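From: lab user (bench 3)
To: helpdesk
Subject: output format question, protein + zinc ion

Hello, I'm new to running complex predictions and I'm not sure whether the block I got back is the full result or only part of it. Here's what I submitted:
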Amino acid sequence: MASLIPCPHCGLRPKEEFSIRGDASPVRPAPTASDESWHRYVHIRDNPKGRIVEHWHHALGCRRWLVVERDNLSHEVFGVTDAADWAKRKEA
Ligand SMILES: [Zn+2]
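Helpdesk reply: Thanks, we reran it on our side. This is the complete output you should expect:
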């Protein structure tokens, strides 16, 4: 895994300052969505190889939630975005 993560708020920081919190790709269903939709959102995850997006928490830095795009095979980091900004981009 890359040893330095480019936090958009703190700059390059060691990966040990972050907690990986899981897949950032699932889209939250509407409150009225079916039980099956909620089951898939809460419990079902793909296990892809290659480029993925994950929620990371900069626990020992700015304490912001981030979305890290990286390759889980080569550990190359393609980009890091504040999770609030990433959510706004997804809605647009
Ligand atoms: Zn930070």
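A quick orientation on your result: The radius of gyration is 14 Å. Let us know if anything else is unclear.
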